[in-house]
Amino acid sequence: MDAKENLKPIISSLPDSPGIYQYFDETGTILYVGKAKNLKKRVSSYFQKVHDNAKLNLLVRKIVSINYIVVRTEWDALLLENTLIKKHQPRYNVMLKDDKTYPWICIKNEPYPRIFSTRTVIKDGSEYFGPYASVRAMQTVLEFARQLYPLRTCNLNLTEENIEKKKFKRCLEYHLGNCKAPCEGLESKKEYDDAISQMRLVIKGNINGAIKFLKTEMQQYSDQWEFEKAQELKEKLALLEKYQSKSSVVSPTIDNVDVFTVINEEKRAYVNFLKIVNGAIIQSHTIELSKKLEETKEELLLMGIAELRQRFASDSSEIIIPFEVDAEIPGTHILVPQKGDKMRLIEMSENNLRYYVREKQMLESLHSPKKKVDNLLEQMKKDLRMMELPHRIECFDNSNIQGAFPVAAMTVFKDGKPSKRDYRHFNIKSVQGPDDFASMEEVIYRRYKRLQDEAQPLPQLIVIDGGKGQLSSAINSLTQLGLENKVSIIGIAKRLEEIYFPGDSVPLYLDKRSPTLKIIQQIRDEAHRFGITHHRKRRSAGSIQSALTKIEGVGEKTTEKLLSHFGSIERIKQATIEDIAKIAGLDKAKKILDSLNKA
User: What's the confidence (pLDDT) of residue 493?
Assistant: First the structure.
């Protein structure tokens, strides 16, 4: 595809530098914001060929002007792209689905600072830690820190002048042991500031730093024979060490590390972030990205890294990710671990992602059963390489014993659930002997010839219980009817649950936990059960009829009349000769009773 004439001069003048580019339509609306390691190469690639993605081709057709901004590094480009996407929300960009306001822990910029939670960040010199994805996690940190260091919660203006003038009186919090009354000068500024410093370390997850400080202080008090104060610090030290043992998840040598993983679905992607300090997870968060142009896993992961590092103000010197990406982050080492503790962190992050996605799907299905069905059908469409959603599935199974009483069964699932009123039985008419392939060919032909004759809609998916042989027989019938490319068809072999596709000798093995495989197994098992039930009835009817027709002089018509009147062989046995004679005549009645009683 040639670039539009008015865009050629812009594209040819683009620099071979990192930066971001913006595409605009004829109304001046931003269509797309992208980043590039090389602006000229990246932008040119949009106009040099017809793309596989229909949305991407539509985007290119709408572009009438291009703006760009050159930056120093590709990471700067990624950060700027992320900022512009959130600001302008272009139609063709990945969108971040996250409208929550997360809580922070604030150390207020004031004399004798208070520490509290807030959802509003004010630029007044105060320190903010977070944001926390979980309010419970934040409260746990705050409560533990307050347990270690009782600090004031009042909003009094505790200037040195006000304290000296004795403007304040200790409150109930002092008597409860939750505050040391700095308002009356009972706690010095230095003691209070030391407590704030230790709380800062705890909030940051630097438990080792707080432990080291407490041990030094405890030793000093002990050397000065101030054993009560030393004992108080010892109790705090025990609390810290207990807290550390509970929060440690990997080797404590892993410090100041960010972990990122991604799950890429058809329309959405999810990126998980873990922050590790001294071997403990101090932050965890997952974001959802709404895809627009079939972005790759690498692109989505980088978008997630840029967003989450900005949001959590992370300056970690090491980032752990599950696969290589073509990007550099200044001052940061990117690692793809293969084993050990760091590989365990990748697995932990991926587990967080799976639980998040599963919980989200469960909540969506609770609120919208249709959403659950749509997700299932979308997954089946993707797994089975279909062109449309399998709203109606029909499954076929043959039953016979050494060729006797051959029957077939058809079961139907609509939107992933059995539709029993649509089940059908077939008695095989044209096949002699045990020939599953020919029986399958007959049943498929009869079923879909009838749908054609009655102008009924076809199912989106046909499932054949059997391997390549049965599938080929079914395809022969569809070909005779001119339907070979108008409906999807697969075979499922019982032994290893292989899925066979037309013309493909290599089967597909779906994950045993796959919802697609579970639905196929369920409809196959239903067809088997339904077919066996019908086969037993035919066998039973056949054996009953043969018990009567073996009697000399008793033919098919007499047998049918007797069974229709009495209902079963047992009732015929119990009947009087006169009752039987009314239907079969006296001579036959005597023969029938003699024969049945001997049997």
Answer: 87
